[in-house]
Task: structure prediction
Amino acid sequence: MVKNFSFLLKKRDGKARRGEIQTSRGSIQTPAFMPVGTAGTVKAMMPSSVKDTGAEILLGNTYHLMLRPTAERIKDLGGLHKFMNWDKPILTDSGGFQVMSLTKLRKLTEKGVTFKSHIDGSNHLVTPERSIQIQTMLGSDIVMCFDECTPYPSDEKTSLDSMRLSMRWAARSKKEFGIDPKRALFGIQQGGINKDQRTESADYLESLGFDGYAIGGLAVGEGQELMFRVLDYAPNLLPENKPRYLMGVGKPDDIVGAVTRGVDMFDCVLPSRSGRTGQAFTHRGVVNIKNARHMNDPRPLDSSCKCPCCLNYSRAYLNHVFKANEIISSMLLTWHNLHYYQNLMLKIRDSIEQQKFNLFKESFFETLNKGILSLFEFILFN
Result:
């Protein structure tokens, strides 16, 4: 029997939430991290390998897929799941963030956004309706409303106008999406760093009624301290019985801090992008594998990690293949990073279930800070 989309909030520990999302393609345990499959692939990874890290959902990028190979072609070939050989849920972003990033190549109006392709310079118009149509052709399980990602910094009027445009687009997105119990449509809260604006945005989205709610317009340059200040209130403005998704975040300490404040879902390119640039996440901080001090180091990246990279390869080997520009370097470091992220989410979920999230958080930051201090001492005295 194909299940309808639903969200069950199982347990709380302070503001931290432990839940489960049901979709027609399987369940997602929350808090959850979604690896980013920008163009129909998580770079340097096979879909089966991504699954082996513990990932239960991927993010697909509407902007990139609509330009190449096009949503129409993917639909004709059986949809994005079949196209990329991924049988678990997929969330597609609306394309709004990427389009808004093309400042010099796009024109924003009430109707939508006209822009030039970064690939071949061809002209395109994306409206809320067109974004939903593209995501429907892709066949994603969770669809995002088309929005304008408010730039940072912005003055109060610019932020307000941007938020209200996104709310009008949210209404048009919902109308275009219609009713589909097996798929979900998420609204996106905007309002920059202004509490009154985020309150207005959340109230309007709730009046429209969505299957889940995203917190947009953060991780755009405001810094962690200001982001956390917004997250101290923003998630609480959203419905308690729906999943809350913080878009584009982030670093491990960002995730732990956001879970503390009531967020359920995350995505970020950081684990895969960092893997390709020689950076590995460990329980004691980030290891830069291209550093010369790893050349003769027989230890694994992280002695507490059970991923194939840490079980089978030394830091010395990883240093060598990175410097030799071998493809296996990106594969192993990305695999390790994604495994680290999924293991982090598992530990977070377990600690909330056991009502020990604060203990986990204290231990996480204590170990992380010790690792940073050790690295500082090494640099200082060697």
Residues 373-382 have pLDDT under 50 and may be disordered. The radius of gyration is 21 Å. Residues 274-381 form one domain.
